[in-house]
Structure formats: C-alpha cells, structure tokens
Design a protein that fits this description.
heterodimer, A: 114 residues, seven-stranded mixed sheet, four-stranded antiparallel sheet, 11 strands, globular, B: 110 residues, five-stranded antiparallel sheet
C-alpha cells in the first residue's frame, strides 16, 4: 500500500517562472491538503481539496492555485515565483470527515527559487 | 504570537535521558497531533490526541484540554530519536486545516 507520494523531490526555478508540484494520496484517501514549510519553521496551510474543489484556503495569494483530479491526486501551481517561495512543499492526505485519524504526509518537494 | 507555541525550540540530551517537549495552544481544539520530521523533510505522525494520554513504545503523549497544553515524553532517549518534533492542532467545527507549531529540534548525543 503506497503512502503519499510527491514529485518531483527537488526543483530549481528562477524568479517569475511558474511551477507545478504533484501529489498522489494514500490509497483510500479522498482529501489532499498542501502546506508550505520555510526553513526552520512549521508548515503553513495553503489549501485543501476534496471532490475536485478547493474547500479551505490559508493566507496565501492567488499565485498559489491547485487542482484535484477524479483519481484524488492533486497539483499545486505557483505562478510568478518569488525568492520567498523557496520552501519545502508538503502534501498530506486524509479521508473527509475523519478528523481523528492519523495524518499521512508525503516526503515533500524542495523548491528553490533563484 | 503563534497560535501554537512549543518549548523548548532546541534541546540537546544525552542518550538515556528522559525528554519532555511542550505544546500550548490558544483556543479550543478538536484534536492535537504530534509529528516527527527527520532531515530531508518526511513527516511521520506519532500521535493524535483529543483527551488523556497515549503511549507507543518509548513515546508518551498527554493532553490537558482545560489548560490547553500537551506534552510529548521520550523515555530512555536514543540518538535515532534526533529529529524535529512538531505539534499541530485541529480546531473544532467544519474546518479541517491544521495549525502547526514551529517545532522542537532534538539532538540526542551518544
């Protein structure tokens, strides 16, 4: 049973470019949440997707957008990259309504913006 | 002020020591998670608590809902316990998002 998988593991971009990160949830999970973790900080909630729609959103600009596919996998897109977007991007999957279950995270995508 | 505060931020211990990491939060929650993050990024869920105490091997987690406080204890610490330990809370109601603390960097020396 595969856990949460993310790709790519590392990515280097330059300012102004656009990036797409991908996440496949754990088998049986239908909800995907994305987090940004800056160096030395705890993860910050970006948004959550369920039934191909954004359910909740954190305090991130519209440059951050996402998508969920019918197979529950998800993409995070960031446009007009800034140096400050350099961070570890984590994906977590869960089953909607199961607020009390353990969390499952991917290993993350390390994004460096030069 | 962060909604979720952890202490200490950094902790160095000798192998075999008993370790305590603390987490305080500011409003009522539905659940609290303790997570472990090793260098390279991967996060592993250790515990989910809504009340009381849980134990898994050498790890013990407690929560006091009235005091809005949780602790993670590691007994007989080992160098392989070296990692960042993160507390995350989920608030009640319809929201499903997590609020994370900034983490405690633990280094256990042999």
């Amino acid at each position: 049973d595969a856990g949460v998988t993310q790709s790519p593991t590392h990515l280097i971009k330059t300012r102004g470019q656009q990036v797409t990160l991908r996440c496949s949830p754990k088998s049986g999970h239908d909800t995907v949440s994305w987090y940004q973790q800056a160096l030395g900080q705890g993860p910050q909630f970006i948004f959550q997707y369920y039934e191909e729609e954004e359910r909740q959103r954190g305090n991130f600009p519209d440059r951050f957008s996402g998508h969920q596919f019918p197979n529950y996998s998800s993409e995070l897109n960031v446009n007009a990259l800034l140096l400050g977007d350099s961070a570890l991007y984590l994906c977590a999957s869960s089953l909607l309504g199961q607020a009390y279950e353990k969390l499952f995270f991917g290993s993350g995508t390390q994004l460096s913006v030069l | 002020k962060n909604e979720v505060e952890q202490s200490p931020q950094n902790l160095t211990a000798q192998e075999g020591e008993f370790i305590t990491i603390n987490c305080s939060y500011s409003v009522g929650i539905s659940a609290l998670h303790w997570l472990q993050q090793h260098p390279g990024g991967g996060i592993v869920s250790l515990f989910m608590l809504s009340s009381g105490k849980k134990k898994h091997g050498r790890l013990i987690a407690t929560i006091n809902i009235q005091e809005k406080h949780s602790s993670l204890h590691i007994t007989a610490s080992h160098p392989r316990d070296s990692a960042v330990y993160i507390c995350a809370v989920r608030y009640g109601g319809a929201t499903n998002k997590l609020i994370f603390g900034t983490g405690t960097l633990l280094a256990v020396q042999p």
